[in-house]
Amino acid sequence: MEVIRNAWELIGDEAHLLALAGRSTREEFEADRRLRAKDVIACCSVKASDRGFEIGSGEGTVASLLACRCLSLDCNDISASFLEMARAKCASYPNVRFHKIDANYLSHLTADTYDFGFALNVFIHFNAYDVINYLRSVRRILKRGGVFYFDACTLGEQTLALFREQADMYRNAPERVRGLLNYNHPTVLRTIVQEAGLELSIRSDLSEKGWNKIIAVKG
In the chain, what are the domains? Predict the structure, then answer.
């Protein structure tokens, strides 16, 4: 288990960028994160009075873009090395806090507290068991009417090339599976959202082509 969790403990800027952005350059990654931050603000209707949380904060790029748009933001990551980078990047924002995720998912966060939450390029690595356990934690900490935005993937035309590439990576180093894509069909994702006690927003974008955007609401 520690080998799997340590898949995200990396050394050096190049290794961290590769984990976050794949083949993208630093400039392309930063531009993508600016667009994704705007997407989070729109999908979650983020207001200045809102408390939010992020699962998988990485090096803190999106957190640094959102911090000035909300009351507070709790960043959570399984990686101590990424959290250290995020703290440095968000040092000028006193309303941002950082937490290391352990085996109990988001149990360290207070129930019925948050207006919104999000996870970008995180659930694409999760199997169905991780998805349900994280979403159960999400439901516990969201306020009624709170919104959680995340992306996921299935095996389709948009992801087939990556699947082939990562199948070879898995063959050579199966212990690194935590860092590879994990494919969950849209029907599975719908069922898990419901099983977690959340409601799937009609603004969600689920398809069999590959990439999926899910907006879940605590009713």
Answer: 2-217 (3.40.50.150)
Question: In sequence order, what are the beta bridge partners of 151?
Answer: 213
Q: Is the dihedral of CA 46, 49, 55, 58 positive or negative?
A: positive
Please answer whether residues 159 and 183 qualify as being in contact, where contact means their C-beta atoms are separated by less than 8 angstroms: yes
In 10 A of CB 206, how many CB atoms? 18
Gap between the Cα atoms of 52 and 63, Å rounded: 10
Q: What is the pLDDT of residue 100?
A: 96
Tokens of 199: 């409601």
Give pLDDT tens digits for 91-101.
999 999 999 99
Q: What is the pTM of this model?
A: 0.89
Q: What are the residues facing 216 on neighbouring strands?
A: 148, 200
Q: Please, are residues 28 and 21 in contact by the beta-carbon 8 Å criterion?
A: yes
Please, are residues 73 and 54 in contact by the beta-carbon 8 Å criterion? yes
